[in-house]
Amino acid sequence: MSAQAPSAVILIRATRFVPNPATAADNAFQADAPAGQTEEATSAGALAEMDALAEALRAVGVRVHVFDDDDHTRPDSVFPNNWLSTHAGGTVAVYPMYASNRRHERRSDVLEMLKSEYRVQAIVDYSGLEPDGIFLEGTGAMVLDHVSRVAYAARSYRADVAVLERFCTDFNYEPMAFDAVDSDGVPVYHTNVIACVGTHVALFALDMIPDEHRRQQVRERLAVTGRTIVELTEEQIREFAGNAVELCGRTPDGKRRYVMAMSARAKRSLRPDQVAAIEESCEIVAVDIPTIELAGGSVRCMIAGVHLDHRRPLAEAELTEAVAAINEDNPVTPDGRFVDGNA
Hints:
The structure is a single chain. By secondary structure, the protein is α/β, with parallel strands linked by helices. The protein has eleven helices and 15 strands. Helix 2 links the parallel strand 4 (about 90-95) and strand 5 (about 120-125). The longest helix is centred in the N-terminal third of the chain and has 21 residues, at about 40-60. It is globular, with a radius of gyration of 23 Å.
C-alpha cells in the first residue's frame, strides 16, 4: 500500500441525496437542481452516479466499502471524508462539522467495520469541539501529504487553525495554513476543491492564494518533495479539477496501479499538457457525476480513503484429535467420569 494513495475506500450510498440548503451560504460551488426536477429524480440520479463511481474504482482494483443511507435528514452524507480520516499506524480521526444537520452523518457502523477489517489502534474524536463553534471538516478542510507529513489548509469557518494545529500535533503533521479566495474575494470553503496531493504529482490552484509570499511558500513546500506541480486556474477549479484523489489499485495480475479519481467534468477542463503530466505517474479514472456536483463537492469529497493495514481473516486451524476431545460436548475424564460444566 502506498503511503499517499490508499488501496481501499469508503463510499456512502445516499438514497435521499439533495443539495444541502444548510451549506449553501458559504459553498460557492453549490447549485440548485434543474427547475422542475423532483427531489426523487435528483436522488435517483445521484444514486446511479455513486454506483458508477464504486464500479469504476472496483474495475481498477481498489477495494470499495459501500454503506447505504436512507435517512432524508442527511442530504450530504455522500461526502464521508468530512467526518472521517484514517492514518497509517492504526489511527482514525473523527471531526467536528460546521453544518448542524451534517453532524449525525458520523456512523458507528463505519467505525466498527474499520475495527473489524483493519488494524485500528485508536480513534481520536474531535467532534466534542462543536458546541464551542470550532470546526475542522476532515480531508475536506485539509489536504494531507502523508509522505512529507504536511497538512495544507485554507482558513475558513470549516477549518479552524487552532484545531488544525491540534490535529497536526496529535498526528505528527506540519500545519500549512493560508487564505484562499476566488476572483470575487469569496473564501474557499474547503481546501480539497483547490488542491490534490498525489505520490508524484500535485494539482493546486496556487493563484487563488492572494498573499504572494505565502503562495510562494506553498509552491516551494510542494516542489521540495520532488512532485510535479500542475497549476490549476480558477475556471478549472469551478469545474472541480482540484477535487481529485490518488488511489492505489491493482492490475488483474496483482501489480500496483496508481489512479487519479476525478469527475468527467473535471477531466474535460484539463489541458492536454496537464493530463499528460498527471498520467506520467497515474492513470485518470473519470466518472460523470453532475447530480452530486450540485452539492458543491465532487469525487474527492465522496471518498474516505482507508490508510490502515488490512486485517486478514485467520485461517481455520485443523483440529487435532486431542483438541477435538477438549471440545467435545460431553467430555469425560480419563477415569471415565462425566464432567458437568454446571457443577
